[in-house]
Design brief:
This protein has 23 helices and 32 strands. α1 packs across α6 (208-214) and α22 crosses α23 (649-660). It has four domains: 10-256, NAD(P)-binding Rossmann-like Domain (Rossmann fold, 3-Layer(aba) Sandwich), CATH 3.40.50; 310-463, Succinyl-CoA synthetase domains (Rossmann fold); 502-576, ATP-grasp fold, A domain (Dna Ligase, domain 1), CATH 3.30.1490.20; 582-696, ATP-grasp fold, B domain (D-amino Acid Aminotransferase, Chain A, domain 1). Helices cover 33% and strands 22% of the residues. It is α/β, with parallel strands linked by helices. The chain starts with 9 loop residues before the first helix and ends with a strand. The strands form six sheets. It has a seven-stranded mixed sheet, with helices on both faces. Strands 15, 16, 17, 18, 19, 20 and 21 form a seven-stranded mixed sheet that branches.
């Protein structure tokens, strides 16, 4: 095998993957009822213009095409080979393709790392082939690749037996093979087409991120839909998403895992609170990806995301939606769904109400502009839309259409279609089942929805994107993690500029030294062997004198002997008692897929009970840290609400940002860190860490 080969990437990869001039079906069957027979059948039916080479050593012909016994006998090297053979023969088939110089091999079979030691060995063989040869591997467990524009239906997915696949502007990449078929059938019913669909399977080589990144320069692809089961190969996904944002190509994602239990970590609370799905959510939003909750939203989100390109909104935090309706009930459903997602339905301001009245627009401009049945008239709805779209108080306008959408579709949607040119996003929600009206709106490129849930889901997902250019240093992974003592952790906080209470570290055996701060104090055991001090009785609070401190030393020694006899602990840490207006937890960890993250959470019992927290990719700047503070509900109690004292939230923002700098300080080697609690003092007095825990390589 070759070493240090130049792998197929970029435009060359995209060409072989979705624009191949020739394809081979390795293990092709003459029986179209079998999975091995479908790709040839689909390619012929769809009018694929390139050469099709069935590989079957037992037949002279396959479905009317000349069959070839092996790769070596082919008259040319195909760009793309779909391997349909049984699992155990796949590595040999891929090796044969590599020897022939094939650029991309897609593998249908399953039964690799998920199936035990033999499968792990087979997958390792594939990974080795991908490293040592020029071949790129899609799969295993890939249901194939489809490009409706060229007739490339290189798939065994039965859903593609349906003719006349719709052509569109979006590219689909999915961990689930069946999902590409589901999206095509659902899209066809809605008049939504695709520029390409790829089932990535197990990502032994090619990942969703690398595949999508390779297609970014394709002018026919204007956006991306991702169906994610995990964040494997998160670095490639990051590169792609950031590049897509720069090119103005929206990325919409549906990710499984919202109901998964939190990913527990061995030492800190951060992993338990920042569960796997919470990290994925922060990861996607920080990359500018619109994460939707409903599969139908995955299809519906692209037009609105395209209408609101990243980085062009004058106020990135704006979430004000104006609603105009011909049905009060339909509007109320949308308002409810937006409200539970934290999106503001903005009433018309007095100046806008005046303009509506002067234009003779009937109806009441309350929380929504309810035109009642008068809104079914073209002139009424058109005037209302013109005024609302020009009003500064709205970031977008939603038109809710009632029964007229079904019974008079042309009249119902015409004023909406005629207003589509406005620079401000306009969308439509149809209350009845109105496929004809929906089709007209879709054809006009307007964001349009069948349900209030789907409409609110898409609006929220698009508004919640928050792309940042933060780049973390790459931490060298591997090796055992070492826990730092609290004193050692404070030394790291000093280097980062995170304030903490003053402390004295002294031998546990013997008398306490004179203290540089007044009583009362707290005494804690201080040892890397005991990360959770309270679990062994290693913390004594409210010590009020020298005599009590000496007694505390003896008590700590006794408790260690009883509860931690095998742990080494020679020191005690003494610090003054501290009380703030609020307690928070600031956590940092390096996620294996998403990379470094920082988390702010309510401290104390609320940290684990209420799961009141905010997460971002690290590092974060001050503005982002302020946003995080605004997302933690408990901290609203120290914002001066109803005359209550204000906490020093600006100092807290500085501490969050400083802690997140661990992501760009690789020399510190810290992979997990937690300040818990951090005391928020009154405004102007700062914040203080009163306990800290860190792990590093």
């Amino acid at each position: 095998m070759k070493q240090n080969v130049a792998h197929v990437t970029g435009a060359e990869l995209a060409q072989a993957l979705i624009y191949p001039g020739s394809v081979a079906i390795y293990g092709a069957s003459d029986d179209t009822s079998k999975m091995g027979g479908r790709p040839v059948q689909f390619l012929k039916r769809s009018g694929f213009a390139g050469a099709i080479y069935p590989i079957n050593p037992k037949r002279d012909q396959v479905q009317g095409l000349k069959a070839w016994p092996d790769m070596a006998s082919l008259p040319q090297t195909p760009d793309h080979v779909y391997v349909l053979t049984p699992t155990e023969s796949v590595p040999a088939a891929v090796a044969e393709c590599a020897r022939r110089g094939v650029k991309v091999v897609t593998i249908l079979a399953s039964g690799f790392s998920e199936s035990g030691p033999e499968g792990v060995a087979r997958e390792a063989a594939l990974r080795q082939l991908a490293r040592e040869t020029e071949v790129r591997i899609l799969g295993p467990s890939s249901l194939g690749v489809v490009n409706p524009a060229t007739g490339l239906v290189l798939t065994a997915n039965a859903a593609f037996a349906e003719p006349d696949l719709p052509v569109g502007k979006v590219f689909v990449a999915s961990h689930s093979g069946s999902m590409i078929g589901a999206l095509v059938s659902r899209g066809k019913a809605r008049g939504i087409g695709f520029r390409g669909l790829v089932s990535v399977g197990s990502e032994v080589d090619l990942s969703i991120g690398e595949i999508c990144e390779a297609t970014l320069d394709d002018p026919q692809i204007e956006g991306y839909l991702l169906f994610l089961e995990s964040l494997r190969h998160g670095d490639a996904l990051q590169r792609f998403a950031r590049a897509a944002a720069e090119k103005g190509k929206p990325v919409i994602a549906y990710k499984l895992g919202r109901s998964c239990a939190a990913a527990e970590m061995a030492t800190t609370h951060t992993g338990a609170l920042a569960g796997e799905d919470d990290i994925a959510d922060a990861f996607l939003k920080d990359l500018g990806v619109a994460r939707v909750e409903m599969i139908e939203s995955l299809l519906e989100a692209f037009p609105l995301a395209q209408k609101m390109p990243l980085g062009t909104r004058p106020n990135s935090r704006a979430k004000r939606v104006g609603v105009v309706a011909t049905t009060g009930g339909g509007a109320a459903m949308l308002v409810d769904q937006l409200g539970v997602r934290g999106v503001t339905v903005q009433p018309a301001l007095p100046d806008t109400v005046r303009k509506l009245q002067e234009a003779g627009v009937p109806g009441q401009a309350g929380h929504v502009l309810d035109l009642t049945l008068a809104g079914t008239r073209y002139d009424v709805m058109k005037k209302a839309l013109d005024i609302l779209l020009d009003a500064d108080e709205f970031d977008m306008v939603a038109a809710v259409v009632g029964s007229s959408a079904r019974f008079q579709p042309d009249l119902a949607v015409k004023p909406i279609v005629d207003s589509a040119h406005h620079s401000k996003p306009l969308l439509a929600m149809l209350v009845p089942d109105a496929p004809q009206a929906l089709a007209q709106l879709t054809t006009a490129g307007l964001p349009c929805f069948r349900t209030p849930e789907g409409c609110a889901d898409v609006i929220t997902a698009v508004l919640n994107r928050r792309p940042r250019r933060a780049k973390a240093s790459r931490m060298v992974r591997g090796g055992a993690l070492a826990t730092l003592s609290e004193a050692q952790a404070y030394a790291v906080l000093d280097e980062l500029g995170v304030p903490h209470t003053p402390c004295v570290v002294t031998p546990l055996k013997g008398k306490a030294p004179p203290l540089p701060f007044p009583y009362p104090v707290v005494a804690k055991v201080c040892s890397p062997d005991i990360p959770h001090k309270t679990e062994v009785g290693g913390v004594i609070l409210g010590i009020g004198s020298d005599e009590e401190l000496d007694q505390a030393f003896e008590t700590l020694q006794s408790r260690l002997a009883e509860h931690a006899p095998n742990s080494t602990c020679d020191e005690v840490l003494i610090q003054p008692m501290c009380k703030g207006l609020a307690e928070v937890l600031i956590g940092y960890r390096t996620d294996p897929d998403a990379g470094p993250i920082v988390m702010l959470a309510a401290g104390g019992v609320w940290a684990e009970v209420a799961k009141d927290r905010s997460i971002r990719l690290a590092p974060v700047d001050l503005d982002t840290a302020r946003d995080m503070i605004g997302e933690v509900r408990m901290l609203q109690t120290v914002t001066g609400l109803r005359g209550r004292p204000r906490g020093d939230l600006e100092s807290l923002a500085r501490a969050i940002s400083a802690m997140s700098q661990l992501a760009v300080r690789p020399h510190l080697g810290v992979t997990e860190a937690e300040v818990n609690p951090m005391m928020v003092l009154p405004e102007g007095q700062g914040v203080l860490a009163v306990d800290a825990l860190m792990l590093r390589h």
